[in-house]
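Archive entry. Fields below.
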Amino acid sequence: MNSNYLTDRVAGIVLFLFGGWYVWYGSQFESPIVADSLGPAAFPVMLGIMMMGLSVVIFLQPDENPNWPTNTMVWVKMAAVILSFVIYSQIIKPLGFVVATSFEMYALGLLFDAPKVKSLITSILFSAFLFWLFSSVLKLGLPTGTLLEPLLGG
Amino acid sequence: MEVFGLLLDGFGVALQPFNLMIALVACLLGTLIGMFPGIGPINGIVVLIPIAFALNLPPAAMLILFAGIYYGAEYGNAISASLLNVPGTSAAVLTALEGNKLSRMGRAGKALGTSAIASFFGGTISVIAMMFFAPLLSRWAIRFGPPQYFALIVFAFSMIASLTGKNLWKGLMATVIGLMVSVIGLDVMSGIERFTFGQLKLADGVEFVVVVIGFFAINEVLKLIYEKGDGEAILIEEIGSVYLTMKEFSSAFMSMLRGSVIGFLIGVLPGAGASIASFIAYTTERQLLQPKGETFAENGGDIRGLSAPEAANNAAVSGALIPLLTLGIPGSGTTAVMLGALLGLGLQPGPLFMSQNPDIFWGLIASMYVGNALLLVLNLPLVGVWAKLLKTPDWFLYPAIVAISFVAIYAVNNSPFDILSMGVLGIMGFLLVMLKLPLPPVILGLILGPLMERNLRRSLSISQGDWMFLWSDPISIGLWIAAIVSLCLPFIIGRKRREEIAAA
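PREDICTED_STRUCTURE:
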């Protein structure tokens, strides 16, 4: 089997199973209302069946040149991005928008091969600018940071 | 001439200082968004939706903002196309071809001037067409009942599945994925929860803004990290005069006119949009030259070859707004996202939208006249500024977009959890792109899913379960036939078009 086809074959199998699960789960919905002749189950069941049919087509007619990256570096970078989002969601409340966003911009900048010092400065300046624009001018109320507030006298 | 009275009222709305300011901001932001490669109007609009909601913008202002970004981006895309040879949006591929040739000959100014004037032509002519065509379509669609709406949605899905991306099956699959996600949440007709797994957060369905920002802003940045290192594009800094001579203008005049008409007509069709409009306008111009024994100037770039696609991609924007506003059925990812925003405001676009909200509809039309004029006036003198902004390094630009997306998401309901969901959805969007599944059909499915199911179930309630009712009248039958034909399109024109694109 041509390894170029592998991506679509695997996707076909996974999506077929997903479609099957969707049909099974969806078929259990029941309406308490009699006037609704089609009921809440028919539409999801139809979609699940379509998904199963389409995944068979994809399996039998896979694309020759998928985009799927074989370079593991790409996946390491994607994992790094996710990790930075996890950290961001954890620190935004205690450390506030400016600190968290400076960190996020700097981390992402590194993935774009940013010059380290310049990128640190622009990340802080831009995060502060966004905070000023949205919090002070547009009054959207971004978190200042529960840990920092005592230091700022707030 | 009722139209002119309404238009005059529309100008009353559009020229209020606040709305005028919104239009100006939208045009400038649109130009910027269109200019930077990798981000287009859809990315700009999705990020601004939650911000606009949090700021409590009135509906007219919000529509003026989104439309301004949409057509402003079609002005901006010509700047990077000409100066960097990188199309700012997919609709500028041909602009890059002709415009960059002109720029390399030291006539970058002419390329940008031509693009701006052609965009103005396309924008203005199509707004005039929109003004007369939209009421007609509204009046026609007022007779639509559930079966006709169901058929119309099927038609929109088949068009977008067969025209976006290279593989029809993957287009359809993307649509089905969107529809499957749209089922999540409370079913309004029966009152039961579907696919929520008891999670309270899912009862209202997936948060549309979180999905679209994940899919179209975060995913875009991930894609750029992945594609990085394809070689730096060369920025042309010699711009020269942006003003066309009378002779140059008159040589391109007919091309602009034809491009505008083609762009508008194609823009109205679901799925086709600005990229296909600009492509057809370009090939039409080339074919018209053949009998005269002429071709586009080979090496220097041709003003005519630049005018037609630029006029067409702007005209397609107004065209695309028509089905959105008069039928409530968007034909593209960008208009689908706009529909999501309008529904969030409690507005239901459709045949009655124009007559029930004349201030919003005619205010929008008038603001589009104003916006196109603003863009023409601003773009020519500001060309030098835009060119300087193009030097913004990637390592600042794309992290900055993520930062702005975070502000937007945080504005929805101050929830760090949403930031995480958005990141996960961004990765999911990235995986779909890696599988070559196009994203616009997913969004269209997500937004139109509830409407589609509701119309199907209503139809069958009316007919007491008789499925034949779905294709029992001329309008539905016509739409079903159109849907089937559009699904066959990739097989009929697929190869020929691909060859033409390769030749162009």
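CURATOR_NOTE: Residues 2-229+238-503 of chain B form one domain.
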